[in-house]
Amino acid sequence: MDMLKMLDFTELFGGLSEKSKKMLSEIAIPKKLSKGKTLFVEGDKGFALYLLGNGSIQLLKSGPESKGVVVKVVCPGEVFGEVILFERDKYPVTAVAVKDSTVFVLPRHQFYCLLDNASFRNDFIVFLMHKQRYLTERLMHFQSHCAEHRFFLFLRDHYGRRDQISPGMSKKDMAAAIGTTPETLSRILADLKAGGLLIWESGKIEIKKEYWDSFNHKE
């Protein structure tokens, strides 16, 4: 897998100059993860941030009864674990491969060395501004969209507009990921099933084209 090509399609690093992307690719270490493999555990000392090349990674936060709650599903091209660059030296979540995956490991100490280069440093400042804007937009999204809308935005953003999806998570974890309660999500799913628009059974979600079309009109 070509790290340079992957960076071109990475939302957060894609805006870097070609020179900066080349510098970043030179410190990246590819690492393969089999399905169910844990990359790091909440509370582990953080030595690297990661870019997902292919596959899918769940980020989980410790919850009641020691059961992890899914807070995000990482898709190819997304960066995760970057919190260890700025705020803390320990990972605040656990990262687990949902399917066979490849990540690019970006060691923290080598990343800091890149920041000594003025060109890369300036590019990275733009990256941080982009990240801040993204988080602000996500906060506004949670504040302004109803739970049903957030549910479908989550499906669309993480899996694309498809007629069948295998989410790789429980309904309880999905509810946590979209910022609602399991009871609210159950009511939404029951209404959609009754309307013949969506069915979530046996780990698969079947979605009718008519609902995608009507959903697009709501945005």
Describe the structure.
There is one protein chain. The protein is an alpha+beta fold and 219 residues long. Helices cover 42% and strands 23% of the residues. The chain contains 8 helices and 11 strands. The strands form 3 sheets. A 4-stranded antiparallel β-sheet has the order 1-8-3-6. Strands 2-7-4-5 form a 4-stranded antiparallel β-sheet. Strand 10 and strand 11 form a beta hairpin. Helix 6 crosses helix 7. The chain starts with a helix and ends with a helix.
Which helices and strands, and how do they pair?
Elements: H1 3-8, H2 18-27, E1 29-33, E2 38-40, E3 48-54, E4 57-62, E5 68-74, E6 79-80, E7 94-97, E8 101-107, H3 108-114, H4 118-144, H5 147-159, E9 164-165, H6 171-177, H7 182-194, E10 198-201, E11 204-207, H8 209-218
Antiparallel strand pairs: 1-8, 2-7, 3-6, 3-8, 4-5, 4-7, 9-11, 10-11
Helix pairs in contact: 6-7
Task: Using brief descriptors, characterize the structure shown.
alpha+beta, 8 helices, 4-stranded antiparallel sheet, 219 residues
| Helicity, as a percent range | 40-55%
User: Order of strands across the biggest sheet?
Assistant: 1-8-3-6
What is the number of domains? 2
CATH class of the largest domain: Mainly Beta
Uncertain residue ranges? none
Mean pLDDT figure = 85
Give the CA-based shape. Answer: elongated
Rg over CA atoms, rounded to whole Å, is 19 Å
Describe, in short, the structure shown.
This protein is 42% helix and 23% strand.
